[in-house]
Design a protein that fits this description.
single chain, mainly alpha, 6 helices
Length: 83
């Protein structure tokens, strides 16, 4: 649990532009995301739920689908229909 809290604290120091959900069709770039290497590392360490709202919408939906995360999938679907 301490590692989870430490990651949360570290992410709290990161510029929010890197941690926000990207709009439909918005490319992940070095100016708006943590980068694919960091995404892969966090995923490999088991922090996939931390990634759901930091990637692009299609990737986030796919991640929720793969882990059968219905509640976050529905929230993301609502976000895409609002835009």
């Amino acid at each position: 649990m301490i590692a989870h809290e430490a990651l949360h604290n570290v992410l709290g120091l990161v510029d929010p532009a890197y941690l926000r959900l990207k709009n439909q069709g918005e490319a992940l770039t070095t100016s708006n995301s943590l980068g694919m290497d960091n995404f892969r590392l966090m995923f490999a360490l088991g922090y996939w739920k931390k990634l759901v709202y930091t990637m692009s919408v299609p990737e986030s939906l796919l991640l929720c689908y793969k882990f059968n995360d219905v509640s976050n999938y529905e929230v993301l679907m609502e976000k895409t229909t609002e835009s």
